[in-house]
Task: structure prediction
Amino acid sequence: MVRRERRDGDGMISRVRTEQVAYRYPQNNHGLAPISLSVGPGERLLVTGPSGCGKSTLARCLTGLIPHLYHGTLQGEVWLGDQRTSVAFLWRLAERAGIVFQNPAAQMLAHSVEEEIVFGLENLGLPREIIAERLEATLSRFGLEAMRDRSPQTLSGGEQQKLALAAIIARQPPVLVLDEPLSMLDSTAADELVAHLADLADSGTTVIACEHREEYLQALPGLRTLRLEGMTPSETQVPALHEHSGGQPAHRLEVEGLSVSLGGQPVLRDLSFSLDSGQVVAIVGRNGVGKTTLLRSLAGLQKHEGSVRMNGSWPDLGLVFQNADLQLFNATVRDEILFRVPEPDMALYEWLLAALGLARYEQSPPLLLSEGEKKRVALATVLMRRPRHGILLDEPSLGQDAVHKAMLIRLARSLAGSGRLVILTTHDLPLAAQADHLALLGPAGFVTSGPPAGVLGDDAAWARLGLSVPPWVSTVGDSS
Amino acid sequence: MIRLGTAGKTRNLALVEDSPLRRADPRTKLALSLCASLAVMLSLEKLVIFMGLYVLLLLWAKLLPEAARQVWRLKWVLLVLFAVDWIFVSLDLAVIITLRLILLAGAFSLFFGTTTPSELRLALEWLRIPYRYAFSISLAFQSVGLLDDEWRTIREAQRARGAWSQPTGWRDVAARVRDLVALAVPAVVLTTKHAWAMTEAAYARGFDSPHRQPYRRLAMGRLDWLLLAATLAVAATLVLWR
Result:
């Protein structure tokens, strides 16, 4: 198939071109401010910016999902080669630009890895022999042969993201758009994904990545960066925090012989550790190693063997889930935070709104906020109940930009300062580097733990874990 | 075995891989299941004989434990129906209604315990159901197992934030209603978001293409013809038997 490329005003060939494209969602004021860009064959473009600036919206505009599947207000034009996205058929646009979404598990459509790849190839109308050839080549290129019959739901986050990319790349689109592809990946899986993107760009594919975790993508040679400002002003100041939740006497979390099995498979094995209150502890490990299971066990939600005690009794630790949609259901942010709080401390409420940058959303429906904002509302609902011993945060930086990550770490420090224990699990190494204590969790238990500076420099421990520490991590951590 | 959900709970909703019916054509299995479903119209005497034969088939197909599990899930419905029918109508009716439901649950296990969503889609397409609908039905079938897991996770998440009331009995109806809202809203939101994410993913891979060419094709083997012949013979015998 011959595809004509379009030339921009300077006569350069562009595979993707936008002319003052802007979009506004019908249900809220979020969207994309007017933007023009032109990207040619083999180019690598990083689109970055604060939460809610329109990165995901731009990714959908570039692939034609907007306006074909969304019915807000679109202005300007997007061209994919010689096709204007507003009038071309969506299946034709899908041949020119593939998109990989943020949550790999949510985009799985088939019951096996093989079927997942075949689905997109069937839709190209290729003969069966060609489909078979491309299937084998794709499985081999992405190292998925051994898991070809497995259900995508049984794969780890990194494997799922690799499969999502493989299912798109098998269709050989000249343009690849990625919407926050690294957000759920550990550092090794992120490095692997970036290496795949470099290969694709070298072979002439146009790569456009919309991503918060831009440091990983800086490894792509020749990367251009586009910073979006967004339609609504972002907080640039982290408000000064005041402690309203009262000090706590020193206590110690003691875990002995903690073991958890899921579906007959051991996930945590005989884990024993103790942690003093008054500190922020970050737990890092590969996708699927059991970090979430550990937090669920500490919160009393997971059946387990062994004991979990805080000064001899069951700990009162609030858990904020990775997916905030699980915890929100009220009509306004105010109702959500104050729901079933007996005699609410309104000073604490006001403090939380300010500390988490939620003041302007007080009367907004929580479910219409961005992912990062929803996570902050979920955190506020837990803190409003004043969990006596501390809080557990599962991937708290997911969907948060640098400003809100800074807010988050200051809030965590403030809680620790009041004598509470804050435990967070994360793939975000710059965030982990800012904790007081960093622990590395492997399949057989904790590999090492201690102050972040020492743990980050322990190459042997990271190697045992199968993770890598990018060279920029300690610098970012120190500067924040 | 398919591992589902964030908590990684494993469920036995998946295929019974060692069943001889696993390799049979989905159309054959559809015919077997339909035959079993139609048998609910038989009189009690014939129904008992048919169920005997059906149990033998499930035993041969290594599906008896799966069928038993499905029936066990319905135990309360079966018990209530049996009691109501017996008390208000007759024991005969109570027995026949219960047997019919058990047979339907068994027919469900026979098909869904041995058929993948793609095979289901191919069978539906063979029945001239448009691809768009066949694909949606197979995707819904694939996602059913996730719902239970999602519901449990939401309940845990609400407990974790303290939004779940302490058990005080059914007298505190207003609190119970609020509990249900706390569960229902996230459930609807998650299901809608999941469905939307899958819609986007499907369209991003050319779902609406008019040029689609299926990679897999259905093919009847010797086992399929044998099973179909046996199904026809049993159906004819039961219909013609006076």
Residues 234 and 325 of chain A are 23 Å apart (CA to CA). The radius of gyration of chain A is 23 Å. The first strand of chain A starts at residue 6 and ends at 7.
